[in-house]
Amino acid sequence: MHEAIEMQDIAATHDCPMLRTMERKKLIAANWKMNPPPSGWDAPDSPYRPHPSVDVVVCPPFLWLRECIGEELVVGAQCGHPEAKGTHTGCVSMAMLAEEGCAYVICGHSDRRREQKETNADVVAQAKAALKATLIPIVCIGETREERQTGKAKDVVSAQLKDLPEGIVLAYEPVWAISNGDPSTPAATSADAQEMHAFIRSQLPKSAQETTRILYGGSMKPENAAELLAQPDIDGGLVGNASLSPKDFGEIVNIAAKK
Ligand code: PGA
């Protein structure tokens, strides 16, 4: 602990890119979406458990939050309402999630932008409320295929980044690369992903550029994780389909641990 503080102090007072990069510990988050926990998730050697050199986060459906927290996993919710309580049928607030023992919450996943019509302003409100409740928001941004094909990808992510607070984790998830359960969906190439991650980093306030973790999401799997995670601006993954297989998820975590 003492050592970590010293490292941070050194990094803060010296302009040393390597030290600053070291602060961005890799984060691999499992987004189980609307699926029950994969069998074996609570085994003693389960890959969903905390790892010594990678931040492993598991985002189950609401009904399994308590069980996962009880097993001492580091848990994120898949969404949360920005208001603390009130007449919002079917919703759970950020404050309630924090009280339950969640550490993270996904904000603005493209499923919710599409199905629940969440806007950029909604996502900003969620991220702010999450931080206020002491949750770390994992804010998802990313363009659709049509937006990419018409040259709007960077404008779209810039608009999604606008007004977001500091202290969050970002996940660049190009909508066209998300598997939707089809494991044959190609991920973004590591070059395309790196280009967008570097662009996203350049759009952050100076004070947050070196410390903000930017995860990649969209068909990350054992076959492509090494190349994606080797990119200088990719700090981890938000993993959907492959996170439902303990074997595949464990391989991704192990790959991240070597980076
Ligand atoms: P995928 O999902 O890994 O199945 O593409 C990622 C996500 O939507 O978070």
Q: Which terms summarize this structure?
A:
single chain, 259 residues, globular, disordered N terminus, binds 2-phosphoglycolic acid
* Multimer state: single chain
How many strand segments?
8
Mean pLDDT across the residues is: 93
- How far apart the termini lie comes to 22 Å
Structural class: alpha/beta
Q: Sketch the topology as an H/E string, one letter per element.
A: HHEEHEHEHHEHHEHHEHEH
Specify the number of helices: 12
What percent strand?
5-15%
Supply Rg: 17 Å
* Widest sheet, order of strands: 2-1-8-7-6-5-4-3
Low-confidence stretches: 1-22
Silhouette: globular
Query: Which ligands, by name, code or SMILES, are bound?
Result: 2-phosphoglycolic acid
The helix content, as a percent range, equals 25-40%
* Largest sheet geometry: 8 strands, parallel
